[in-house]
Amino acid sequence: MLRPGLYTSILLLLNVKVSVAKKDLPVVIWHGMGDSCCNHDSIGKIVKQIHQFSPKTFVHSIMIGENESSDRKAGFFGNANSEVEYVFRNLSSIPELSKGFNAIGFSQGGLFLRAYIERYNNPPVKKLITMGSPHSGISDPPGCDDSRDSWNCRLMRSIIRGGAYSAYIRDHVIQAQYIRDQMNYDTYLKYNIFLPDINNEKRLKNQTYKKNLSQLDFFAMIRFEQDHTLVPRNSSWFGSFEIGSQNKEIILEDQDIYKEDWIGLKALDAQGKLLFLSCPGEHMQFTAEYFSSEVLPLILHPRNPRKTGPRQVYGSKKQRQTVF
After folding, report:
1. Which of 10, 86, 106, 248 could form an S-S bond across to 32 if both were Cys, CB 3.0 to 4.6 Å?
2. Which among 155, 161, 184, 176 has a CA at the least distance from the CA of 80?
3. What angle do CA 91, 94, 100 make, to 5 degrees?
4. Catalytic residue among 54, 61, 107, 278
5. Would you call 283 a catalytic residue per the annotation?
């Protein structure tokens, strides 16, 4: 028979173990262009994979508007600033997210999640993974496929061709709001209503953006190796064309956004919390096996991602220069 004192000690030890074994944080997902919150063929499968990996994890897939149709349309037409604010109000009303969550953003959804973190971050994001997200913008409207939203996509491209920074288009076409015209950089800074702000490119810097982003547990950016939708494809790693050039690329560390730490990327990097990851294939063309083996272990279980992360981790400037 156990002595009372020893029995109490064992209970205390068990309690300690229980308190350490915390369940995974909730996961918030933001889909990309042409997709919707609950598409059974895309985001729906992602949600199922998360639940297979961690059955008790609460998952919230972001929806703009009242239904899937309005959500899908909002991926093409609307105001990115208003949509990010809408999501902030929505997330702050969900009790399960009140203590924070991890986030996965697909394509432009990753860009918008970063905007949420910089501007609001309440409730706070702990870990952020973006897949094929245009963090440095794009120099040309994204291409269209033969999906059910190809008409909206073609309409979007046609409108943007009329002038991405004209008054109506810049306020109402989502993709125009992250087109970065490096050949007319001053015009971009003056008239683009979204990207110059969240990248803190304007003369007056918003220090809250840097503070909020640098508080992440880690920020992992996944680039698709054969991406032809994003131009340049290395925008997924904050790569960009040099100002005044249509083809000369420049990596993150050689840009002022990093050197002067406009949004906290340098601070994250110094702590080993900024990851440059790579996925085979075209834009958003990843397998269920890749997502389960390479992405979910990062977002759901605590680990040192720079040491034990996905197989293709480009952690140094030299490594990434060789794959540009």
Report:
1. 106
2. 176
3. 70
4. 107
5. yes
